Amino acid sequence: MDCVYFYDHLVIFRNFDHIKSKLCNKVQVEEDNVELHDNENALNFICRLLSEALKDRVSLVCPVRVCVKDKTDLQAIGLKYIGQLTHVLLTKGPPSNTPAGNEFRHFWGKKSELRRIDGDLCECIVWSNGPNVCMQIVNFVLIKKLHLSANPNELELWYHLLPNRLDPFISLHKRNRNVSLVTASSLCLIRALDKLRELLRGLNTKLPLNITAVLPLSSAFRDTAVFPSILSFPMADQSCNNKTLRT
């Protein structure tokens, strides 16, 4: 199965060789003498950090390759969401002033803050309510922990493929938020279509070919549209209005 359909979240790297060079120059690897010059080792190193940062939010963090037509495959990391816990804004850590709490604060740095939860003073992180929480965590690890912030003059080193990428296609956009929109029912649309059908078929005496049927294409006429239809009223031509005012 294609990884684009299997994973809930993909972090795709544009130029992984450039990322490897940044990792080798800026990341001090002290454990197990890990070599980051290899793609597999570098991806596994990033996956370990993301697994630590995203624990209790994802069930799988795995290096993958994204196939691009007529181009070299792109290195990526796939995330499999757990469920509602994935988008919780609060990351609760261990109690403060404990070995686990000190390790938590060492990992997250200044991002960690103290919060009293159920009577205990715990190390916590509060994420913003704006974009995807997992995307915020991934960006934090790549930028703050691994120092992979891109040069403003360069292309972004990575981009996210999220499950909500189709949301703009199912959102109702209003041209003017201050103007309330009037919606129409399917019954009104069908009656308007019947009137239009009568008018068009009334032209059969003046047309070389007869109009036998007028069928709608929009899903609004079948009462299956995602959003209700919005009534629009024809406006008089501005030039006609000016002539009327002059007379």
UniProtKB/TrEMBL annotation:
UniProt key word RNA-binding: yes
Q: Name one GO cellular component term.
A: CURI complex
Name the InterPro entries for this protein.
NOL6/Upt22, Nrap_D3, Nrap_D4
Question: Where is this protein found?
Answer: Nucleus, Nucleolus
Could you cite one Gene Ontology molecular function of this protein? RNA binding
Domain Nrap protein: where? 7-146, 174-231
Asked if the record carries the keyword Ribosomal protein, the reply is no
Coiled-coil intervals, chain numbering: none
UniProt entry keywords in alphabetical sequence: Nucleus, RNA-binding
Which GO biological process entries does UniProt record here? Answer: rRNA processing; tRNA export from nucleus
Tell me which PANTHER family the record gives. Answer: NUCLEOLAR PROTEIN 6, NUCLEOLAR RNA-ASSOCIATED PROTEIN
Per the similarity annotation, which family is this? Answer: Belongs to the NRAP family.
- Name of the protein in its database record: Nucleolar protein 6
Organism, by scientific name, is: Schistosoma japonicum (Blood fluke)
